[in-house]
Amino acid sequence: MSLGTAGWYPLSVAVIYSTGKMLKIWNMKKKAQDDANADAAAGIKKKKVTAAQLRVQKDLSELELPRTMKTTFKDPDDVLNFELTIEPDEGMYKGGQFNFTFAISQEFPHQAPKVLCKEKIYHPNIDLSGNVCLNILREDWKPVLNIQAVVVGLQFLFLEPNASDPLNKEAAEDLRSNREGFKRNVRQAMGGGAVGREAFDRVYKTRD
Fold first, then answer.
1. What's this model's pTM, rounded to 2 decimal places?
2. Of 52, 79, 133, 190, which residue is the catalytic one?
3. Which of 84, 150, 172, 206 meets the CB 3.0–4.6 Å disulfide criterion with 124?
4. Catalytic residues per the record (predicted)?
5. Does domain 51-199 have CATH number 3.10.110.10?
């Protein structure tokens, strides 16, 4: 049978087309169900990707790190927990290797990442427990900020320690009153020595 009015098909053709389309959709649904059943039988559970995970994945894909920094993931499937290593090549902390843990909650980006320094270091903006005094990790955090902003902030702390907003008040006073003495104490602490009564971790980068 030939086509009639332009744009119109015979009823039999329309039925065949509609039936074929329905079969295709049914086959797709069946395949998806079969795949899900196979995963269940194998004990595989596919987790739903959350909004926080999607945002972190985006931030990480856009992350621009200099050669003095790198990220490490203990679990490649867990983007919400990772480490950042900073190896300053200038400033008072040159030659050191500093590792920070990032713990990101499901509230991200409405809640700032939790960042801790793994090593015990002598720094006015990092206390002896590894807590970091960085304004964007506290009151100045906004959802428009990203992981890149935090990385840049941490990098800046090693280039320009800030004595006006300290967590380690003794180190801050040392920096304010005797900058050269502070530099000596930083080098002493980085070598695993003590400053006053407090001993610090050795953080000098191991030569390859």
1. 0.77
2. 133
3. 172
4. 133
5. yes
